[in-house]
Design a protein that fits this description.
This protein has 18 helices and 24 strands. By secondary structure, the chain is α/β, with parallel strands linked by helices. Strands 6-9-10-3-11-12 form a six-stranded mixed beta sheet, sandwiched between helices. α17 crosses α18. This is Simple sugar transport system ATP-binding protein. It is found in: Cell membrane. Pfam families: ABC_tran.
Amino acid sequence: MHLELSGLTKSFGSLVANDSIDLVIEPGEIHCLLGENGAGKSTLMNMLYGLLQPDSGEIIINGEKVVIDSPSAAIRHGIGMVHQHFMLVPVFTVAENIMLGREQTRGGGVLDRKKAYARVRELSDQYGLHVDPGALVEDIPVGVQQRVEIIKALANDAEVLILDEPTAVLTPSEIDDLIAVMRQFKEAGTSIVFITHKLKEVKAIADKITVIRRGKVVGQAEPSASEEELAEMMVGRAVELVVDKQEADAGDVQLEVRGLTVIDERGHTAVDNVDLDVRAGEIVALAGVQGNGQTELTEALLGLTPVAAGAISLGGKNITRAGTRERLEAGIGYVPEDRAHDGFVGSFSVAENLVLDLFRRAPFSAGVALRTGEIERNCEERVEEFDIRTQSITLPVSSLSGGNQQKVVLARELSRSLKLLVASQPTRGVDVGSIEFLHKRIVRERDNGTAVLIVSTELDEIAALADRIAVMYRGRIVGIVGADTPRDELGLMMAGASKQEAEVEATEHPTTLGSME
């Protein structure tokens, strides 16, 4: 299929998400759509898949203009999409999920599960996807769930397959498996539109790269282009991709966790007998695929989630039963993984958000009265120090970009003396330029003697920041390794291998992304 997008434009109120975008997808090519979070990549693909309608522009397939006003219309035209957040029913089997929306029946109107099982096996064998049609979706790993989504698209005879940030929840070895599958699709003549902001993946798989910035196509690049060149196209200026930091000068243990166990809302053991130390003046990164207990661990450290067993000490003082406010006042700073839900109050001003955990004390209050002049003065200082881009400090923080919202959260937490900084997914949804700034600021906090615990699913971020790496899998820490540990070994540990097993396996079977370091 030859697919062409001509002048596609889409606005949401005053925001122009896509501005007259032209794009050509050739048959049997892997075309990477590269851009920062919020650049307009997903909006463009949602128009191609019929989830959104363009304000203007055309979609042309094999030389003919077509109207795609729904996902079913996209499917009829041979376009399939695997969304960043999977569209699967957890309590259904793989085959039942494949049947949804295209149910086939036999005598008496009974669903023909046998035919669905056969179709799953056929596609699974043809592309080496290795999926059990009878497995419940809730019981299979996220990497296999993604294969189910791909099989759903293939079952509809997709000739163009859109993959929207497909590696966000995968380990490096699962990413390698996905890359192998994508190459098979290419050889079979299927075109792939690969949406991502991860430079290593683009270089590993792309035939052609189109870069989108602020809703516009700013150019195309070859896979041979350096990561620095690609990053500059994404941001519009030169970006330092490597954090310049000295070796850590670690001091005494500030955070001591022993035998920590947390039971989640469903009664499952989310954190299982975890031991962890973080010293003053070092960054420990907690690595792992999302959903392996990292969220529950960080929330337990802040007193946001009850502890079933074990102990937490800060600076030698047991805080296991302390409340959240008491822990903050004891010197813990917290950057939550979901800033919009837990990190700020969107309707409050920038100035107000910068004192959310400080307004009770001097100089920001006198008795029960707030001292607005001091709050505004503090805001102006933080805005300058952290390069927070806002037209006014009185604007609601919800009006800022994602990167600037994250700067507000970090600025607030670092505006007081800390013993421990817990930063969970500190650059999620943040542009490359803001990532550069945030990383430098976190390293500076380490150099000031603060103990820092970073939680991240991004191996590039872990490699940039960590002095030591603790790998978490199914609620347990499977190993604590040095910052120089190869990506392949980390990926295997993220899938449950011990350090020794990972060393052997990585040597014998290196991954595509690991070989690019």
